[in-house]
Amino acid sequence: MSKRKDRKQTEELFESVSQLAGGGQPGLPQTHEAETFNDAGHTNVPIADEALANSKELAPVLASALPGLRQMKKFRFQLLHQWMLAHLQPGRVADVGGGKGLLTYLLRQSGWPATVIDPVPQALPTKFKDLTSHKQIHLAATETVPRLAQNFEPAMARDFDILVALHAHGCNIHLIEAAAQYDRRFVILPCCIIHEPIYPPLGVHWLQCVVDYATRTGFRVQPFRLNFKGQNIGLYGLPL
Ligand SMILES: C[S@@+](CC[C@H](N)C(=O)[O-])C[C@H]1O[C@@H](n2cnc3c(N)ncnc32)[C@H](O)[C@@H]1O
User: Fold this and answer.
1) Considering the entire predicted model, what is its pTM?
2) What's the pLDDT at 77?
3) How confident is the model at residue 155 (pLDDT cuts 50, 70, 90)?
């Protein structure tokens, strides 16, 4: 698929999940008005597009696919870290399916208690790029982050304030259920449907299905986009 077609499809998908998230809930602002709610329920916090437009500091790191802006190929951990700092009240983060744990590392550097929950033991990367300083940061081989080497279980949500799943296939629906059960916030960037307990009906995109599920489960859902290539649409869920 051409880049232009790919980008257009992402735009359309984002528009549709934004409509779906805002459409059925009185009082929830439409995302094309560049508004979102924060943890206190305020509606004046800008989404990534607006933050980008208004913030010199955030511009290099926080973006959606604004016209003229080149999408970064990678850096999803750095971009999500920055998005969370810019938009959410700090809290204890469960980085579900966190893989090597770079998101957890970055959050902890920012003072947020974060823990990886992932059954596969993985070491932190040896280096990563700091998008603000544009420097390569090297991590000592001895550097670690807290990890629970287990499959995510709903009861784990009790010990956290924000449940995060970045491309954690098979975890999205369980995570939403856990967030509902324990009245927690969630941030998910779904990728594929693999190992998920529900399946979208014919003609419905997986993301639309997840938004629908979360809203029916009792969340206000705010879609957002980050400036990396691939599955870059995120959903922030706040219990009603
Ligand atoms: C596609 S990787 C994504 C890793 C990382 N978040 C990233 O963006 O690179 C999915 C991760 O989910 C983990 N995973 C799979 N099933 C899980 C489960 N039930 N609970 C927690 N983690 C799980 C896998 O071990 C893997 O590290």
Assistant:
1) 0.83
2) 97
3) very high
Compute, in angstroms, the gap from residue 16 CA to the centroid of ligand 1: 27
Q: What is the pLDDT of residues 12-30, one digit of tens each?
A: 999 999 999 985 443 333 3
> Which among 107, 167, 192, 194 is the best mutation to test ligand 1's pocket, defined by most ligand atoms within 8 Å of the CB?
167
Ligand 1 pocket check: which of 171, 177, 232 to mutate, most ligand atoms within 8 Å of Cβ? 171
Assign domain 3-239 to a CATH class.
alpha beta
Residue where the block lists tokens 């280096």: 127
Is the pLDDT score of 160 beyond 70? yes
The mean pLDDT of the chain is: 84
Rounded distance from Cα 68 to ligand 1 centre (Å) = 33
Domains of the chain by residue range: 3-239
Residue 98: how many CB atoms within 10 A of its CB? 26
Give the nearest ligand 1 atom to 117 CA: 21
